[in-house]
């Protein structure tokens, strides 16, 4: 059985606005696709807007990430957080609640052996909840560990939500380009120059 995230990565080329991937194994709804990383909707979301960010290259655990992949993932996590919160709650996340979770190994709850980070919106700044509003501490802990109720992502929802989140990411990237923080290279990869060397994000 091939790695499902490698299959998604190989089927979705780097693009500012990557299209939905439909295959015999199901659909993947990308929100971000660069030569270094890919992010897409979780097909069994814990909450609306649940996104996974992973390196394009296979590595089973976080210790396998290269320095370039580590830098790119660190770069994208806050941008994805803002974009997801904006798409789901209409605000960038200041005052809102969300999780960034990452598991290494089966005993830690990792189910797909390709390094990935979960971004899970929980509530907007006004307290607009995403999951259950009345939760016990145990239920909340289970949710944080990714063991909460999960519903299958419907195709229409996936299509709509991935476009919404991607739209917010494109706005973020454009803003960073305008401020001179990042450069766009020919292969649709935002990149940074660090001491004269190009770092593809
Ligand atoms: Zn893989």
Automatic annotation (TrEMBL):
Entry-linked Pfam families: HIT
UniProt xrefs under PROSITE patterns: HIT_1, HIT_2
Molecular functions per Gene Ontology: catalytic activity
Ranges of residues in domain HIT: 17-130
Entries under InterPro entries matching the protein: Histidine_triad_CS, Histidine_triad_HIT, HIT-like, HIT-like_sf
Positions of short motif Histidine triad motif: 114-118
Active-site feature positions: 116
Gene3D superfamilies associated with the record: HIT-like (3.30.428.10)
Any one Gene Ontology BP term: nucleotide metabolic process
Protein name as it appears in the record: HIT domain-containing protein
Source organism of this protein record: Coleophoma cylindrospora
Taxonomic placement: Eukaryota, Fungi, Dikarya, Ascomycota, Pezizomycotina
């Amino acid at each position: 059985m091939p790695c499902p995230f490698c299959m998604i990565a190989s089927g979705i080329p780097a693009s500012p606005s990557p299209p939905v991937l439909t295959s015999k194994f199901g659909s993947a709804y990308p929100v971000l696709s660069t030569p270094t990383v890919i992010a897409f909707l979780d097909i069994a979301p814990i909450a609306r807007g649940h996104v996974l960010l992973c390196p394009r290259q296979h590595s089973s655990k976080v210790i396998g990430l290269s320095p370039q992949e580590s830098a790119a993932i660190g770069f994208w996590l806050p941008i994805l957080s803002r974009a997801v919160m904006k798409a789901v709650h209409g605000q960038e996340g200041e005052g809102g609640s969300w999780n960034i979770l990452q598991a290494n190994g089966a005993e830690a709850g990792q189910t797909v052996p390709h390094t990935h980070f979960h971004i899970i919106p929980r509530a907007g700044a006004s307290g607009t909840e995403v999951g259950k509003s009345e939760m016990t501490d145990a239920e909340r802990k289970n949710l944080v560990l990714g063991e909460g109720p999960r519903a299958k992502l419907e195709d229409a929802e996936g299509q709509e939500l991935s476009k919404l989140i991607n739209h917010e990411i494109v706005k973020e990237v454009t803003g960073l380009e305008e401020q001179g923080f990042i450069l766009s290279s020919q292969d649709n990869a935002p990149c940074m120059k660090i001491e004269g060397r190009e770092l593809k994000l």
